[in-house]
Every structure is written in structure tokens, then in C-alpha cells.
Amino acid sequence: MRGLRYTLVSDGSSDRALLPILSWLLREHRVLCPIQADWADLRWLPEPPKSLVGRIKQCLDLYPCDLLFVHRDAENRTYAQRKAEIDNALTTIRPAFNPAVCVVPVRMLEAWLLIDQSALRRAAGNPNGRVPLELPYPARLEQCNDPKSLLYRLLREASELKGRRLQNLHIGHCARQVSDYTDDFTPLRTLPAFQCLEADIEEIVTRNLWAEAL
Q: I need a surface site. Which of 68, 125, 168, 182 has the fewest CB within 10 A?
């Protein structure tokens, strides 16, 4: 196998932060060939599909891949409910496309970005900052009521900016960069939703013999 190309289909552009996490997991399970990661950007379409099935179909047409990741935040639903929603959507397009993995952070993706102070400081443009950042314990990340607001607050604190400069901080862009600056996602292995994701990736890598591809 000369390379593995995967595509992530999701609800919004902020979900691109999942790509480094997914690539890290594939490497952890011995995918040694070159990996090409794409986020399916459907915003430029004249009429972007609104349904999950529509987004998946359009994604596969425009971003052909060896492996598809489908992301939905759990938000106010359970992991099992979101996974069933994704599985049902995928069922409508099989067997035309089979290798797919559900990605369902609990409560939302931003909870998975709250594990590395250094990454937060670098994403905020202040890698040498010294202001203490109170991150949640990894095992309690899924209990955060509003991880997005917490992430944004920590990034503002990490920037150590004041006044107008703080107001001009592009906080959404900073948030998307956190995972790029995170080298090790091991702390997330305490989370049940992340454990499910890793187990699914391990199974699909083994089934397709991707771990043996050099």
C-alpha cells in the first residue's frame, strides 16, 4: 500500500481539529505508509446538503478516500444514540462504500483539546507564557458542561493579551490549531468515547491489513 487517504465529514470547519487526532491514532496502530488527511469542505457548494446522508454522499463524490470518518458531537444525546444515527446513515450507502468509522466526542470535540498546556499556549501565540492554566483532569473531560467556552477562555488566558489586542484575537482559528500543536493524545485514552474510537480504528486497520503496509 503506497498510502492511506482518509476523509473526515463533519458539521463545521472547527472539526478540522480532529485530523491530527485521527492521524495519531492510525500511527499508534502501526499504519506506517504515508497518510493523507482531508476534511470535506462542502460550504462552497451552491446548495450544501443538510442531512447527514446527503453530506456523506457528497463527501464521497468530492473527496474519494480509503477510509471515511464521520463526526457528530454527542452534545445532549448519548454516545450510543449518535453512533446509531451515523451507522444508520452509513447503511444507506453500503456496500458502495464500506470502510468507515464513527467519531463521537462527549460532549463535543473541544473537550478533547483540553489536555496540553503547551499546545494551548502555542495556539494562542504565546508559547513562553507563564500564566497558570487550570485544565480539567483528563478523566473528567466528558463531564464539562461547556468545553467550547472553557477552551476559548483558556486560550484567551494563555495569550496574556489585554484590551484591544485581546479583542482582536481570532479565537476560533486558535482553537483549530490546538491539536496541531499537541504531540501526544494518550491522556484521552481515559475517556470511554475515545476508547470506542480507538477500538474501531484498530479493528478496521487490522481487517484491511493497513498495519502491514510499508
A: 168
Are 162 and 131 a contacting pair, CB within 8 Å? no
The values of phi and psi at residue 76, to 5°, are -95, 10
Q: Tell me the pLDDT tens digit for each residue of 79-107.
A: 999 999 999 999 888 766 679 999 999 98
> How many folded domains does the chain comprise?
2
For the CA atoms of 64, 69, 73, 74, what is the dihedral angle to 10 degrees?
130
* d(C-alpha 60, C-alpha 70), whole Å: 11
Could you list the residue range(s) of the whole structural domain that residue 154 is in? 110-181
Q: Is residue 186 part of a domain?
A: no
Q: Which residues have C-beta within 8 Å of that of residue 90, sequence separation ≥ 6?
A: 56, 70, 97, 100
Helical (H) or strand (E) element with 19: helix 18-28
The label of the residue with cell 487490522 reads 206
CATH of the domain at 29: 3.40.50
Q: Is the pLDDT of residue 143 over 50?
A: yes
Cis peptide before 107 (omega within 30 of 0): yes
Determine, yes or no, domain membership for 17.
yes
Residues 121 and 85 in one domain: no
